[in-house]
Structures are given as structure tokens and as C-alpha cells.
Amino acid sequence: MRCPRCSHELTVFGGPSRRRPRALWWRCGDCEWLGCQWLGADSPLEELIRYEGEEAVCMWCGDEDFATFAGYRRTVVTLDDGRTGHRVLDVCLGCGRVGSWFDPLE
Ligand SMILES: [Zn+2]
Ligand SMILES: [Zn+2]
After folding, report:
1. Band of the pLDDT at 19, cuts 50, 70, 90?
2. pLDDT tens-place string over residues 80-103
3. What residue spans define the domains of the chain?
């Protein structure tokens, strides 16, 4: 697997476990690009962006390993009630828990 940003070879740094049975985390040793690949279906590699500072602290396990799916952050959606914003999908690279919520635009 090659890094989509710099073509360096990616390495897996977390595999399926009891707490995160469905995904692999990929990391580029060169440019620090991060990706997630769901197992099972023929799923593409999705870019993850690591949070920094306070936001990086996982709300579940307390590790500073919180990241967000870049594709969701970039996509604006409109809900049935007319609100627009981003559907946010966050993941903890430490404990593997995933959370999803809606972040409305101002
Ligand atoms: Zn890279
Ligand atoms: Zn966690």
C-alpha cells in the first residue's frame, strides 16, 4: 500500500483486535499521513487527520490518539430539517472506538 500523498510505503500500526475488529490503521513513515481501511468489503483507504492539543484526548479512554475522517469533514450535508453542516466521524487510534455526530455550519 502506497501513501496517497508522497508514495512512500505505508505501514499498518494497528490491527484487528477485540476492541477494534473491523479496521486497520495505516501510517506513512515519511509524511505522517494516516489512513483507515475497513475490513471485509472492498473498501478504499480513507484519510484520517489527527486532532491536536485538547481535542486529541479521546473521550472514552483518555489517550491522546483522537483522529477524524477527512472525507466527512470536507463534505457538507443538509439534514431533513434544513440544517447544513458536516457529519463528523471520529475515531480513537488507541482504543478503536468510533463516534459520529453532526457539526452544523454557523
Ligand atoms: Zn506519505
Ligand atoms: Zn480511546
Report:
1. low
2. 999 999 999 999 988 888 899 999
3. 10-98
Q: Which ligand lies nearest the alpha carbon of 61? A: 2
Q: Which one of the ligands is nearest to 34 CA? A: 1
- As a whole number of Å, the CA-based R_g of the chain is 15
41 C-alpha vs ligand 2 centroid, how far in Å? 25
Those residues whose beta carbon sits under 5 angstroms from the ion ligand 2 are: 58, 60-61, 63, 92, 94-95
The string of pLDDT tens digits covering residues 45-94 is: 999 999 999 999 999 999 999 999 999 999 999 999 999 999 999 999 88
